[in-house]
Design a protein that fits this description.
14 helices, eight-stranded parallel barrel, 2 domains, alpha/beta, 383 residues, TIM Barrel
Length: 383
């Protein structure tokens, strides 16, 4: 079995009726919690409007999180490239690479919220073209090139980073790939990872598999090796000890989450005419809401549908309240991740070997004890 790493995608999503200070504090506590549970990575989003996704600078958040965690890797999930001068952004990310001693990852995309772009005078139709222009510059800067280049939105003259990346040859990078093929094309052109965020319905899985083929084709064209270990797939999950408990738990925040996608975000998660949102998510394959065993079967379906990927990324959605959310991640780490990471097999083999030979081993142990008893008795008789 291919080793499957674990991670989360933290947009984040926070209901309008709660304190933003407490919400951001809970996001930080979540990363500390995941670090203790041995999650491999967390990706933090960038958004500037809409009121629900309230982290504006993933770099700032990651810098603080790095001081409060020990092992978990921390990525921008994702920085919207059209919103930033590529030279300044690359310089900031290299600094973050140093500050985290190589735990930072650089996820990029065109920007997902139209109103974010509009507020900056950016035409949404130009965002993917702008992403590609910026990404070309950033990759060249990361390898030490000096860049002179002018577009309709940035103008660079002999731009060169003053520090080489802390992570050699460069920090790990990934491009968001959703419905558009732009992400897969860009990632393949540069030979960097792909972060698939377009859902996990049965239709979406076909789309993801097609994006992988496109990515692999681009890698080959540009002299890169397509490695499924660098492919991250985002999905939605909440588990508890029973299916009934899991479904009860998500009633806390599921409707607010769905309302946000219906009213504000780019496309609805659940069609507006669907009244049983929970049932729709379960039947469509969009989400796993059940037990650890259900989660294992769900992830295996995703592996089969895509042909395999390197990281299962849980969307941090706050459907359940905070104690139940923490319990979900504990159950994932305790019972689900070991299934995909090969940490139980040797223990099971060792147990089975001992079980099969138990009678023989016990007979030998009893014989050894009996021999010592008999030896002592013989000694006493002789004395």
């Amino acid at each position: 079995m291919t080793y499957l790493r674990s991670g989360i995608f933290l947009a984040p999503f926070h209901s309008l009726d709660e304190s933003p200070i407490m919400a951001l504090q809970r996001d930080m506590e979540l990363l500390e919690h995941l670090d203790r549970l041995n999650y491999h990575e967390a990706w933090v989003g960038e958004h500037h409007s809409g009121g629900f996704e309230i982290i504006a600078s993933p770099e700032l958040f990651i810098a603080q999180a790095a001081e409060r965690t020990r092992n978990i890797r921390l990525g921008t999930g994702v920085v919207s490239l059209p919103y930033h001068n590529p030279f300044i952004l690359a310089d900031r990310m290299v600094q973050l690479d140093y500050q985290t001693r190589g735990r930072a990852m650089f996820g990029v995309g065109p920007g997902s919220l139209v109103h974010d772009a509009k507020k900056q005078g950016i035409v949404p139709a130009n965002q993917r073209r702008m992403m590609n222009e910026a990404l070309d510059v950033i990759v060249e800067l990361m390898r030490g090139d000096s860049i002179t280049r002018k577009t309709d939105w940035f103008d660079l003259h002999d731009a060169r980073l003053q520090l080489p990346p802390y992570t050699r040859p460069r920090m790990e990078m990934a491009v968001a790939a959703a419905r558009s093929p732009a992400g897969a094309l860009a990632a393949g052109r540069h030979g960097i990872g792909m972060l698939s965020i377009g859902g996990t319905t049965h239709e979406s899985m076909t789309h993801h598999a097609g994006n992988w083929d496109l990515y692999a084709e681009q890698c080959q064209l540009h002299g890169h090796v397509a490695d499924r270990r660098n492919w991250r797939l985002v999905t939605m999950m909440h588990i508890a000890e029973t299916r009934e408990q899991a479904q009860q738990n998500v009633k806390h925040g599921l409707d607010a989450y769905c309302d946000y996608y219906r009213d504000v975000a780019t496309f609805p998660i659940v069609p507006a005419d669907v009244t049983d949102r929970l049932g729709y998510m379960l039947q469509s394959g969009m989400a796993c809401i059940g037990t650890p065993d259900d989660a294992i079967a769900f992830i295996e379906r995703l592996q089969k549908g895509t042909g395999g990927f390197g990281v299962i990324m849980e969307l941090a959605q706050n459907w359940a309240d905070w104690p139940q959310t923490k319990r979900h991640y504990e159950l994932m780490a305790r019972y689900v991740h070991p299934h995909f990471q090969g940490t139980r097999e040797w223990r099971n083999d060792s147990y089975e070997f001992a079980r099969v030979h138990h009678e023989a081993f016990m007979a030998q142990s009893h014989a050894a004890i009996r021999a010592e008893i008999d030896k002592l008795a013989e000694k006493k008789r002789g004395g």
